[in-house]
Amino acid sequence: MPPKQQPRVYSVGCVRIRKRPQSKYWLVRYRDEAGEWVEQSLKVTNKDVAIKKAGELSDLIERGDFGTIDARKSKRTFADLVDEFRQNYSGWTANTFQKNNGTLIKLTAEFGDLALAAISTRRLDEYLARRLDMDGIAIATRNRYVATLKTLFKCAIRWGYIGTDPVAPIKIQREQGHIPDALSMGQVEAVLSSLPGISPKAVIVATIAADTGMRRSEIQRLEWADIDVEASALRVVHQTKSKEPRTIPLTPRLVDLFAGLDRDDPDGLVIRFDNIKNALFTAGARVGVPKLGLHQFRHSFATHALDAGVPVERLQYLLGHASIAMTQRYDHPRPERHRAAIDLLWHSRQAAKENAGPE
Length: 359
Fold this sequence. Notes:
Elements: E1 8-12, E2 15-19, E3 27-31, E4 37-41, H1 47-63, H2 66-73, H3 78-88, H4 94-99, H5 101-111, H6 121-133, H7 139-158, H8 185-194, H9 200-212, H10 216-220, E5 227-228, E6 233-236, E7 246-249, H11 252-259, H12 277-286, H13 295-307, H14 312-319, H15 324-328, H16 335-356
Antiparallel strand pairs: 1-2, 2-3, 3-4, 5-6, 6-7
Helix pairs in contact: 9-13
């Protein structure tokens, strides 16, 4: 693996400028009037221009003219912030940027021309209320807007563009955690049996999802180096939402599946796929499961594990959930679980009675 590129850093008077390897713009770093470090984009790609702008900023700081600096910052618009965020923010993966691209576009369409200092909590509250009441967006969509705004404005403060965060008082609302109905064990096997004649690639993907509960993005990034057939286990290390790797034991079916696959992908990926929706729809329709999606295999894995008595904290680990509350969404009332619990209690009592013998 080639050594990681380091950012280029230069001192200009009392400030420093730097440029990250993957970034288009130069950044400047300095201490504000309170002595706190501030980092912001100079919005220039040329080093000489960046040094000149940094020199002007250094002169203002040395004179103690922070009012002029604040006036310059106040001209930043929301669109400027989003543009810089796309260029410089390293807290999101490429996949996260892709998933949230539509949200960034909608927020920019609403607030793009406004100066950051003009965006108040009230204005944001009114926008969110309008989207809920007039546009009929779901609470989950509203929460996605709030989460994105929180990330953006935290960056705006860290980069020195504003002093207070207008999103901080806005709370994430409680969602009605809708979990799609799990397939029965028979339905899972029926779908897997139907797929070979429809799409061999979908067979591989669906079998991995059904027997591990892995997410689509995790399966897409699964590498041969992550699989140990002899130990009958695989490690999930890429695209994990919790950012923690986990090890999942393999079923005998998966051991046979992996042993029979070619390992000739140049990037070492187990399976390359994009959209298998049509294959799943077709297989689902054949066995009476309309609009079958890949994520239903993950839901079914979780539900069947709980039905089998797997402790919720172990299931949390296998699913890669950051909190046990996420896993507990699958622990909804199911009559068969209650029947099994009562049967277990009854048989235990009967065994105890027999062992006790006559009084």
